[in-house]
Design a protein that fits this description.
By secondary structure, the protein is α+β, with helices and mostly antiparallel strands. Helices cover about 15% and strands about 35% of the residues.
Length: about 100
């Protein structure tokens, strides 16, 4: 997959690939569908990730994750800041979302 220059472009491309859920990061799980559905660390995998730098403001920096859950038959995206702007999460969640090449 070609990496685009903006977060929005990349999200739109992932949507075309079936990543239609919007995940929200909680301390020990991912939530979607306005919090009615929770996916825990042993129930999903990170398929791809993209890092976007904040060109003029460090608070604009973000990581985009393409996430799938075979158990729940879901595919979606998670956007999170990094560094001091990231959300507080458990060690287990941190290991799951760790960026690997």
């Amino acid at each position: 997959m070609k990496q685009y220059t903006t977060l929005v472009e990349t999200i739109n491309l992932l949507r075309k690939e079936g990543y239609v859920e919007d995940f929200n990061l909680q301390q020990s799980c991912l939530e979607c569908r306005s919090g009615e559905f929770k996916v825990f660390t042993d129930e999903f995998k990170v398929d791809k990730f993209f890092r976007f730098e904040g060109e003029s403001n460090p608070s604009d920096a973000a990581i985009l994750y393409a996430i799938s859950s075979d158990i729940h038959q879901l595919k979606g995206v998670l956007v999170n800041g990094y560094g001091i702007y990231s959300e507080p999460i458990t060690d287990e969640m941190l290991q799951k979302l760790e960026m690997r090449k």
